[in-house]
UniProtKB/TrEMBL annotation, chain A:
Name of this protein: Sarcosine oxidase subunit gamma
Superkingdom, natural source: Bacteria
InterPro entries in alphabetical order: SoxG (IPR007375), TrmE/GcvT-like (IPR027266)
Origin species: Methylobacterium gossipiicola
Automatic annotation (TrEMBL), chain B:
GO biological process: tetrahydrofolate metabolic process
Pfam families per record: SoxD
Name of this protein: Sarcosine oxidase subunit delta
Ranges of biased composition (kind: Polar residues): 87-110
Length: 195, 110
């Protein structure tokens, strides 16, 4: 559990990230606010923890932007919430899973989020992500671990009709992932058909 | 792109996976009773068939789970994937007519 006094001193790895002026206007690439992240491993995929459901399908997301749970595998979940709620959430999960073997690890300082939105988000992400990001294969409310370029990421597509994605990567990969997305954003415009 | 059908996630790109070698290897129940030759055979000798091969695969950049797969080493086609602890339903590859390799015994070594 994080000591409260350390949170104020936290330095965000992408605090100085800048976007080039030439970025496609149909795209937004923005480092997400710092938040708390928990990795939960438990065999029992039923019920809820801290009000978040465990029984969703694998590779799906539940909750809203501020408080979400992504099921990454049969027994693995990634939970995101605000930093102020971190201690309360950990305590709530521990009480909900009391008597059940489980592991709840605070990975807040490991994970860095980058928000990608705009009509061309899927084209941008597909510059480095081999997944099919079409509406059928990866509808809104999906979340999965995958690759972006050479880095492992967790890709979340928030619920809603407009494509909004969250790229969660490890802190040491953050500058690489952000740079990769920005560079890919320079090339999402369709080539002109002028002869 | 080669798609591999993860039993948990569905069809996913090949780069998310890692191969873990031959599947269904019978571990010795009492390793200390084995001769050095038998032990080295268990550790190091694996089948390398031309045709259907049962392999362990890990969806390392996805759900992180291990599973088994029947793969044809000639065509690189995945015939079937199935969870660890279960048996393949396909059996042998119809066109090859060979059983999946299941043992480390080296009748095929010579």
């Amino acid at each position: 559990m994080l000591e409260v006094r350390y949170r104020t001193a936290r330095t965000r790895p992408l605090a100085r990230a800048t976007l080039p002026a030439a970025l496609d206007p149909g795209l937004t690439i923005r480092p997400a606010e710092a938040g708390a992240r928990f990795s939960l491993r438990v065999r029992k995929a039923t019920g809820t923890v801290a009000g978040l459901p465990l029984d969703g399908p694998i590779n799906s997301l539940a909750g809203d932007d501020a408080r979400w749970i992504a099921r990454l595998g049969p027994d693995e979940w990634l939970i995101g919430t605000s930093e102020t709620e971190a201690d309360a959430l950990a305590a709530a999960v521990a009480s909900d899973l009391a008597g059940t073997a489980h592991a709840l690890v605070d990975v807040s300082h490991r994970n860095v989020g980058i928000d990608v939105s705009g009509a061309k988000s899927a084209i941008l992400l597909n510059a480095g992500c081999p997944l099919d990001l079409g509406d059928t294969a990866f509808p809104s409310g999906s979340a999965t671990r995958t690759l972006l370029g050479k880095a492992e990421i967790v890709l979340i597509r928030w619920p809603g009709a407009t494509p909004r994605y969250r790229v969660e990567c490890w802190r040491s990969f953050a500058t690489y992932v952000h740079g990769f997305l920005v560079e890919a954003g320079l090339g999402t415009t369709a080539p002109s058909k002028a002869a | 792109m080669l798609l591999i059908d993860c039993p948990y996630c569905g069809k996913r790109p090949e780069t998310e996976f890692r191969c873990g070698g031959q599947a269904h290897i019978a571990r010795p129940t009492d390793p200390s009773a084995l001769s050095d030759a038998d032990w080295s055979e268990h550790l190091f000798v694996r089948a390398n068939p031309r045709g259907v091969h049962a392999e362990r695969w890990n969806h390392i950049h996805g759900c992180g789970r291990w599973f088994n797969a029947l793969r044809d080493t000639v065509s690189d086609r995945f015939i079937e994937t199935y969870p660890v602890g279960s048996e393949p339903t396909t059996g042998s590859h119809p066109s090859q007519g060979t059983e999946p390799t299941r043992s480390t015994q080296t009748e095929t070594r010579a």
